[in-house]
Specification:
CATH architecture of the largest domain: Alpha-Beta Complex
Distance between the termini: 30 Å
Family: Belongs to the Nudix hydrolase family.
CATH class of the largest domain: Alpha Beta
Organism: Rehmannia glutinosa (Chinese foxglove)
Protein name: Nudix hydrolase domain-containing protein
InterPro entries: Nudix_hydrolase, NUDIX_hydrolase-like_dom_sf, Nudix_hydrolase6-like, NUDIX_hydrolase_CS, NUDIX_hydrolase_dom
Strand content: 25-35%
Keywords: Hydrolase
Helix content: 10-25%
C-alpha cells in the first residue's frame, strides 16, 4: 500500500469506519489525509479494517437485456469466448467491454459443463479470478444498466445467489479462496502436440515439481 502524505499524525477521511482511498498505478492504494491530529493506535485500527474492506470488493453489473433485465440482480461480468481466443484473454476482454476496467487473469476457480445448451451444443462455463488494474468504471451502454464495486458479502447475500445452487457453490469457492483454503487453476504457457502451437494448460500448481513448469 502507498500513502500520499508523510506519516505525521493526521486524520484520514472515514466513511463508515473505512478510510477513503483510491488505487494507484502500482497495485497499491492512496489514502487521502487531513491535518487534524489522530492517535496512531486508532489509525492502525482503521487501516486494518480498510485493508480488509478493499480486499473484499468485487466488480458486479446489472444487465439491460435477457432474463436479468429489471430484476435488480447484481452479477459478475460474463461473456462468450471468440473463436480462436484463449479463456484467460476472453476474461480480460469481457471485463473491459462491460465495465471499462482493465484487469489481469489470475486463475480459473471452477468450471461447469452442460449439454444441449447454445445451438444444441455442449457449453463450458468458467469462473475466473481477476486482478483489477484500474478503478474507474465505464459501463457498456448497449448491454449494462449499471456497474459498481461491491463488498463480497453483499453480493453473496443476494437472495438470487443464495437460492441458485450453482451460484451458491461458486460463492463458497470464492470465500474459500479469499480465506486461503482453496486453489484454482493457473494458466501455464505450453505447446500442443506435433504442431507446437502455443497454448495454455490450466493447472493447479500446488504440489507440482518446480522444474515441471
Amino acid at each position: 500500500m502507498s500513502s500520499s502524505t508523510s506519516p505525521a499524525l493526521s486524520v484520514p477521511s472515514v466513511d463508515g469506519g473505512v478510510l477513503e482511498g483510491k488505487n494507484d498505478d502500482h497495485g497499491g492504494v492512496i489514502v487521502e489525509m487531513t491535518n487534524e491530529p489522530l492517535d496512531p493506535v486508532v489509525y492502525v485500527s482503521l487501516l486494518k479494517a480498510s485493508l480488509s474492506h478493499w480486499e473484499q470488493q468485487v466488480l458486479v453489473v446489472q444487465e439491460k437485456s435477457g432474463k436479468f433485465r429489471g430484476t435488480g440482480v447484481w452479477k459478475f461480468p460474463t461473456g462468450v469466448v471468440d473463436e480462436g481466443e484463449d479463456i484467460c484473454d476472453a476474461a480480460v476482454r469481457e471485463v473491459k467491454e462491460e465495465t471499462g476496467i482493465d484487469s489481469k487473469f489470475l486463475e480459473i476457480l471452477a468450471f461447469r459443463q452442460s449439454h444441449q445448451s447454445y445451438f444444441e451444443k455442449s457449453d463450458l462455463f468458467f469462473v475466473c479470478m481477476m486482478q483489477p488494474l484500474s478503478e474507474d468504471i465505464q459501463p457498456q451502454e448497449a448491454e449494462i444498466e449499471a456497474a459498481q464495486w461491491m463488498p463480497y458479502e453483499e453480493y453473496a447475500a443476494q437472495p438470487f445467489v443464495q437460492k441458485h445452487e450453482l451460484l451458491r457453490i461458486i460463492s463458497d469457492a470464492c470465500l474459500a479462496k479469499k480465506d486461503g483454503t482453496y486453489s484454482g487453476f493457473l494458466a501455464v504457457p505450453t505447446t500442443t502436440g506435433f504442431s507446437k502451437k502455443n497454448a495454455y494448460l490450466y493447472v493447479n500448481t500446488r504440489g507440482l515439481a518446480r522444474n515441471s513448469l
